[in-house]
Amino acid sequence: MTTVLTPPGRRARTARPGPGGRPRPPLLAGLGTGLILLLALLGPLAAPHSPTEQLAAPFQQPDGRFLLGTDVLGRDVTSRVLSGGRTIVLTALAGTAAAGAVGVTAGVLAAMASRRLGDLLLRCVDALAVLPALLVVLVLAAGFPGSDTALVAAVALATAPFSTRVLRAAADTVLSSGYVEAALARGDTRRAVLRHDVLPNIAGPALMDTALRLVASLHLTATAGFLGLGPGGAAPDWGRMVSENAPGATLAATPFLAPALLLVLLSVCVGLLAGRLADLVGRGSA
């Protein structure tokens, strides 16, 4: 993927309301993402009961005491839903940030180094990219059971190779542009070119790529929870809740549907925002 970039200072056009003044899907996606993130990060503070304590019979229907009923072990589903998103969201965000840092560093280094060294670096990245992402997560998470750090590292390793290639292409485009050649011709150092020309002009592609990798990170983190990896014991996790309560979905649907819907909505909303961001970056560089 090659992105044509322009010198700093060009502004992207702002989005207009849809027909009839109604907000466009990206605005709704932004609101949805914000609400779900707030629920995930601040939800544990609002949990009415302990998310790990058995309080009633398994798969009890929703009532005045348990708004979403109870799960397979008789724990309050509402409390587990409010408490189960923080780990997934924080792990996905940390993994995405780590992958973004690796992608920017390796991509820019591959672009600014000699052609032979840059190609060698990309070959190493390609060797990691051929590994299935889920396999990387399974190996690291199973090798360090219950470790959040291992899960973050697995998510970063699984997504960083693709960021590296995208940002190397973006940096290559900037380095081959006329204003960078002029800067080098007038005696600017490569460090100055990196600081004033390369990094500002790959910020848009880097932000867009980060948004796309966040979607993948959410999927991988939720899958790890579904498979029982990550924090162990009775710790609430939306992915693990789906796996635990799926067998009893015919007895009580809410323990299974509530975390599943939140995961789907978060992934869809972030995906829509990433698509909108890609559109804005494309317009700004057109």
How do you describe this structure in short?
With 286 residues, this protein is mostly helical.
Describe what this molecule looks like in 3D:
- It is a single chain.
- This protein has 286 residues and is mostly helical.
- 68% of the residues lie in helices and 0% in strands.
- Helix 3 (85-112) packs parallel to helix 6.
- The protein starts with 24 loop residues before the first helix and ends with a helix.
Question: What labels would you give this structure?
Answer:
mainly alpha
Note the overall shape: elongated
Care to count the β-strands? 0
Structural Rg:
22 Å
Secondary structure tally, helices: 11
Helix percent band: 55-70%
What structural class do helix, strand and pairing data support?
mainly alpha
Distance between the termini: 15 Å
Low-confidence stretches: 1-19
Blueprint (SSEs and pairs):
Elements: H1 25-46, H2 77-83, H3 85-112, H4 115-129, H5 133-143, H6 148-175, H7 178-185, H8 190-201, H9 203-226, H10 238-245, H11 254-284
